[in-house]
Amino acid sequence: xxxxxxxxxxxxxxxxxxxxxxxxxxxxxxxxxxxxxxxxxxxxxxxxxxxxxxxxxxxxxxxxxxxxxxxxxxxxxxxxxxxxxxxxxxxxxxxxxxxxxxxxxxxxxxxxxxxxxxxxxxxxxxxxxxxxxxxxxxxxxxxxxxxxxxxxxxxxxxxxxxxxxxxxxxxxxxxxxxxxxxxxxxxxxxxxxxxxxxxxxxxxxxxxxxxxxxxxxxxxxxxxxxxxxxxxxxxxxxxxxxxxxxxxxxxxxxxxxxxxxxxxxxxxxxxxxxxxxxxxxxxxxxxxxxxxxxxxxxxxxxxxxxxxxxxxxxxxxxxxxx
Length: 322
Fold this sequence. Notes:
Helix content: under 10%
Strand order of the largest sheet: 3-2-5-6
Largest sheet: 4 strands, antiparallel
Number of strands: 24
Strand content: over 45%
Radius of gyration: 31 Å
Structural class: mainly beta
Distance between the termini: 75 Å
Number of helices: 2
Shape: elongated
């Protein structure tokens, strides 16, 4: 009992001393997590792909500038924050048991700065969280659409060019080329990625086209068959790059010789077409989120039959990307 009591006293004493406590916990393979946020010290915007290290544990920040290191050894350590074109941060820390939120760290830019004012092509309003990327450099726009991209250009001469991609959710990627020594602010109008879809008979047949709203990248997404009548209809989805299309392109007739209309879903990105329904007449009513609502006159039924006219609804969420 005396020996057992002495061992308990020793263990309790060791546990009270931080260095000894952490040694015992590390020996027992107890590990902790560490969280932090990294922002540009000049713009206060979050920085992505910043390398964060503590001992052998390493992580990179996400789009919001957050990083989480898992399985970090307890006790005293050294935090290192690194990103090209920014001053390195090295700081001693003590990692405790459990989670360790370290708060926000500001890294100061030391590279070349390039400024872009990003706006919506249609509305002229600033685009928030548009990303400018070049190599391993990246930066996000603020509420005014201003983005300051910091790059390491020490090994480049003034005659060389940098290529910057301006990326934003729901917009077409814009590529900008600048001379290394061009530090003037650039005004960039980015175009919504949703194209305008329309029908044209310029080829002699009714073809379906898509074109970006600034008049660029016109392409034919569905060639006409030559059987389409003038009564066709095209109803683009209000948000997605798909459209409902009604035409007589299959040249199919019922037993009475009546030319049938077919309803399709067209994907503007892939030019894929999916057949949905076929009847004597089909009229598109509209879109409700992912559902398409339309009316049809059922082929072959009597004109006095109340089931001849039907309102139909179909969920396109499961096949619109096929």
